Amino acid sequence: MSSSSDAEMKDTPKIQPAEGKLGILIPGMGAVTTTFIAGVEAIKLGMAKPIGSLTQLNTIRLGKRTDNNSPKIKDFVPLASLEDLEFGGWDIFDQNCYEAALHAGVLDKHLVESLRSPLEKIKPMSAVFDNDYVKRINGPNLKPKGSKMDHAEALMDDIRSFKARTGSSRLAMIWCGSTEVFHRPQAVHHDIASFEAGLTKSDPEISPSQIYAYAALKMGVPYANGAPHLTVDAPALMEMARERCIPIAGKDFKTGQTFMKTLVAPGLKSRMLGVSGWFSTNILGNRDGEVLDDPGSFKSKEESKLSALEQILQPELYPELYGDIHHKVRIEYYKPRGDAKEGWDNIDIFGWLGYPMQIKINFLCRDSILAAPLVLDIMLFLDLAQRTGMKGVQEWLSFFFKAPMTAPGLYPEHDIFIQLMKLKNTLRWMKGQNLITHLGLEYYD
Ligand SMILES: NC(=O)c1ccc[n+]([C@@H]2O[C@H](COP(=O)([O-])OP(=O)(O)OC[C@H]3O[C@@H](n4cnc5c(N)ncnc54)[C@H](O)[C@@H]3O)[C@@H](O)[C@H]2O)c1
Predict the structure, then answer these.
(1) Which residue, judged by its Cα, is nearest atom 18 of ligand 1?
(2) 90 Cβ closer than 6 Å to some ligand 1 atom
(3) Whole-number mean pLDDT of the chain?
């Protein structure tokens, strides 16, 4: 039976209204975070449009094509409005959001200046940081020394005071901090009891991002991971999310080169064209690039970037087309480029009778400009998921991620068009609308 039939059989949930303010908490207030917050402030002032945001601009078709009924998503499901958002977060640097936005250098100085007043008010809380997990950077704004459990409790205090200070009725958290080094789940991640014992003993296998995630889940706050490292995709934290009825999502924002890959690869596969090689390289010069210059952090990114192509092409089903593909991904830190990344893809493909062809993609993108609307959409949807009573991994949010989280044992769906269909069908299901299968035989009866 198809997954849409399964969903159809589930009762329509009751969605709690989006009353009051939604507080968005962000560990890591660098380029992505400041571009996101500045953007929301600019949109609220009517200075810009929410380009790139599905929740703000996309529509959803309801019923038959002949019904001509396609409301905006934000008018169809009850989402928090931009006016009701409050922002807070943590960083190892103590610059406020205005200073951090200028430092990141993504946005035009005049624009940042005109948003100075709301941005200046957002000051990062002191961070939980560990140089073993993020190398190459150091900052002064750190929590006093203590056990990992002490740090988790200090973060919970921060969450409580942020909620009281802003008068938020609901919260959601998203990691926009640097990429941590590559780790696999260990015994300490196995279940909640081992994890909590590990926090008390300051087990070296528990990363700072996991301490933030634990604090969020303990406080009933949905958590998303915008970076590729291990965080809530460990059994203990997944169990906690399910037990406490909290939605989680991840990981690694799907922007730039991998976004392109998930557009092009499904197209080649749909026409049964072969791929013998895919070489991707890019240069970027922001702080993210500096951290990714460390081999441990790059390994987290590489794993996340490599997995998408393999899952889309399914070499085990199509060995003659994709069984011998050479896939290579490189990221080079090159300071002059700042946030204005440039990516090159060389794709070696073959067609009828095995004749070879090549595709070259040169994407001059702006990393944080592509990521900022995803932060908004993920936060609004995670809050919606919580008000809908959904818990644990939110696979319907795969659309936003390079390495989508799934239930254990289930392979992730990377094809962006399948992901979008799944997302919209989930919204239809939430509202008791018929799912759209695109069968369409009724038009020809
Ligand atoms: N921009 C994109 O398109 C994109 C796409 C996918 C993933 N990402 C990921 O998003 C994250 C943010 O990217 P960015 O360009 O804003 O990077 P950035 O370097 O500008 O910002 C990250 C910030 O996190 C802070 N930080 C690091 N460890 C911390 C901790 N333990 N607690 C609190 N703060 C901490 C750093 O001081 C820095 O200010 C990175 O992990 C990046 O890999 C970005």
Answers:
(1) 30
(2) yes
(3) 94
Selection from 293, 378, 287 nearest residue 338 by Cα: 287
Regarding the beta carbon of 95 and ligand 1, being less than 6 Å apart is answered: no
H helix runs in 115-174, sequence order: 116-120, 148-166
Domains of the chain: 3-253+369-430 (3.40.50.720), 257-364 (3.30.360.10)
Cβ(30) to ligand 1 under 6 A?
Answer: yes
CA angle 139, 142, 148 (to 5 degrees): 130
| Strand-strand pairing, 392-393 and 247-250 | parallel
Amino acid at 81: S
Q: Taking the CB of residue 352, how many other CB atoms lie within 10 A of it?
A: 7
Query: Which pLDDT does position 7 carry in this prediction?
Result: 46
Q: What is the pLDDT of residues 414-427, one digit of tens each?
A: 999 999 999 999 99
Which burial class, exposed, middle or buried, applies to 439 when counting CB atoms under 10 A from its CB (0-12, 13-18, 19+)? exposed
**Nearest-CA residue for atom 12 of ligand 1:** 176
Q: Is 363 in the pocket of ligand 1 (CB under 6 A)?
A: no
The single-letter DSSP state of residue 414 is -
